[in-house]
Amino acid sequence: DNGNVAGTAMVFTTKGNQDAAITIPSDSTNVNFGGNVGIGTAAASTLLEVQGGLTTTGAVMTLSTKEPTVVANDVLGRINFQAPLDTGADSDLVGASIVAIAEDTFSDTVNSTSLQFQTGTSETAATRMTIDEDGYVGIGTTSPGYPLDVTSSSQIGIEVESSYSGPSGVRVKR
To answer: Which of 97, 112, 140, 165 is 20 to 30 A from 30 in CA distance terms?
Structure first.
């Protein structure tokens, strides 16, 4: 026995809280007691490996809110990056996040959402870049007004560097 569980379903629950139940069907998930969890694979090579879909969709992981009425500024999902086992106050904070934010009240015809990319140095991670529901990218602003909107309260600049020996430059085309 290599520590893998297969052939039957496994159900994990917390005491007295059925909402926390995790059911693992035997035909799609493999738990290796060495620490790796595979979904759609029997040989997970990392802590969590998800395999599925074909080349047109690939493996899909969904983060969704349980909130039945989504309004503007609701968080739909978040991926946090953190080193919680380190010592010290700042090192226990989330270092970076990717957050999906509702930009409007959801309905049958509306699901306006932005993605916010957050980073921190010695504080809680803050939004540094936003891709809004129209595809506009804001650096230093959460409300970009242009396809690329760069805002700063200090020095601002855009640097384009190339090792190409031929002609190069930045071109603005109308």
So the answer is: 97
